[in-house]
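Example (one chain per record):
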Amino acid sequence: MTDFNPSDDEELGQLLALVHWCLVRYFDQKENVAKTLVTEYYERFRGKISDDHYHHDGAWEIATKIYYHSVLKLEPSQYVDWRTRHGHNRPPDNYFERLRTGKIDRD
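Predicted structure:
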């Protein structure tokens, strides 16, 4: 995974790097596309939501929002239904392994 941090905050940068990893690993986005998606998402909401909001949502929720709104471009009001129908309510098990170990599974 490409190391990048569109924010000035190291912890938020780590979270956004995990969002990037989720987009590549679980939503089949190319590295450069995922980087652009995360950066654009962050820039769109810079100053509108706090860094705490990102930590509250977590990387998985942010990745699913980015994928739904920016890649699929589906109706915003249907996000929760889509997430439920496609099993994205909860991150995959190996996501938690990534959080615990800090290792990126490239398979």
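Caption: Residues 51-72 form the longest helix (22 residues).
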